[in-house]
Amino acid sequence: MLIVMNANATQHEIDNAVRAVESLGFRAHVMPGATRTAIGVTGNQGAVDLSHFENLPGVAEAIRVTKPYKLITLDLRPERTIVDLGDGAKIGDGSLAIIAGPCSIEGRKQAFVVAEAVKNSGAQFFRGGAFKPRTSPYAFAGLGEEGLKILAEIREEFGLKIVTEALDESNVDLVEKYGDMIQVGARNMQNFTLLKRVGRSRLPVLLKRGMAATLEEWLLAAEYVMAEGNYQVVLCERGVRTFAQHTRNTLDLAAVPAVRRISHLPVIVDAAHGTGRSYMVTPLARAGVAVGADGVMVEVHARPDEALSDGAQSLKLDEYEQLVREVRAIHEVIA
Ligand code: PEP
Ligand code: MN
Q: What's the pTM value of the predicted model, to 2 decimals?
């Protein structure tokens, strides 16, 4: 259920409606908007009697939600969500967020060389995995906390915001300690206990689309995070598994307008995992910006041939610099 307050409802009336929701054992999610405040109600298993709320002071209407999601929708929040990492680093505010860095943090020197290029490009977000989901149990799985410490040093040195993956619930505490945004990877998109845990975090969440996830499944994963009270979620289209063999994954660019039609959450495009081939990364990143993504994620390495993970889709430093120029130019045209 969704409670829409009058445009001129007072804080007292909003608080009163929240108490009415909570007194029934449900959870109230207050979403202030430009024109009115809405309150999403979760925790009810069946239909709620709307008359409990319709006649409360300041309430414009109580609406039964028939869709499976409540909090991610434009019905609840018609304005776009802006995800704010602090110090002016925002995603979804109309700027183009560039999240770049190596697939994995392999060592201090490797990470710093890339971080310097990311900083010089004017990007605000640095990515790099310390906990890596790898297909083979024998592949490099990341440096763990040592990698996170390197990321924290990069934040200090360059003022970049750190986006890094938590592979399971036990990693989240560490990512919260050293990072600025928690990435939930494609393989974990339906790890519901992890989603709930990051939903209780103070850090924003970057939620990758599962490699065979429908739009609805992906949005419901975001709903899991929001239902726990964390509304700072960015969706990341990173390609889905298809029969195509010319790419690692098929980057589903139509997902961007499809998300926009339903949700207020920002959506970005990961052109690295979405293609798996470095020569395709820049063209697909350009396309992602052209279809209206709030940002792009790419992987960068000084020596992609020597990368311990995802070298085939990593841009060299000069290729990355060129990409930034190109995606910015496209963003200016469509903004
Ligand atoms: C990554 O960002 O390096 C990664 C493992 O991404 P995904 O979960 O999309 O495969
Ligand atoms: Mn990767």
A: 0.98
